[in-house]
Write the structure tokens for this entry.
Amino acid sequence: MSQSHRGADGIEIRLVASLDEYAACVQLQELIWGPGFEETVPPAILMVAQKMAGVTAGAFDATGRLLGFVFGISGLRYGKLSHWSDMLAVHPDARGANLGERLKRFQREVCRSHGIPLMYWTFDPLVARNAHLNLVRLGARAAEYAVNLYGSNTGSPLHGALDTDRWIAAWDLERDVVPPAAPLPSGHFVVEPAADSPLPVAHALVDAPAVRVGIPDDHEQLSLDERIAWRTATRRAFTHYLDAGWLVRGFFRRDADTPAFYELTPLDPRP
């Protein structure tokens, strides 16, 4: 595996090495999640994890400034060697350079070099850009739905008092998974935006060939009460269908006719 990737924009992706670089990772965590964030990972853990097949990799500009980093640990999950990607952060100044995807792909290469076949991480089901990156661009699966995984008071202004429901994404590192090219025409919305407000409309949880669970265009622009309403409606749908053995077939971005939505089916039609 190459120890470094440098893009045409001059940004280098490589493993974090020096104490100053580990400290910069902590500073970036505080910038993104706030200084009161209870889950901040300290320099010692960022460093020690790499000695045990973990990954702490950074994106650096030509001056050596840290623009983003990804961190994860390795171990056994369900009896199988796996990597848990715990944190991904990109500096606001570097948004739009696909650094999140580039860091994840570098992390994938490092894990593959250690013989690790699976990677897991979590993301908020209501954040459309993250769902698109994880499920469409990277080809991971929304494998499990965790209710209020980190609690409702993480100390971060990003989370506020909203329950931290999360998808647990599973990424097969041994093969490329091609996401579905188009939604199934039989899809039926069980959650969708209201026509005249930012609130969701929750329909009956029908038994159909496919169902669609819509999410807001930009949940960060919603009030806490509105985000709670979306969390409640989508949680109800996701837990109902996953408990019944359904799977998330894919995620589809908003277009002129439909909101962004997840598509769930009783059986997974992907190879």
About this structure: The helical segments are 19-33, 43-50, 99-113, 128-137, 224-243.
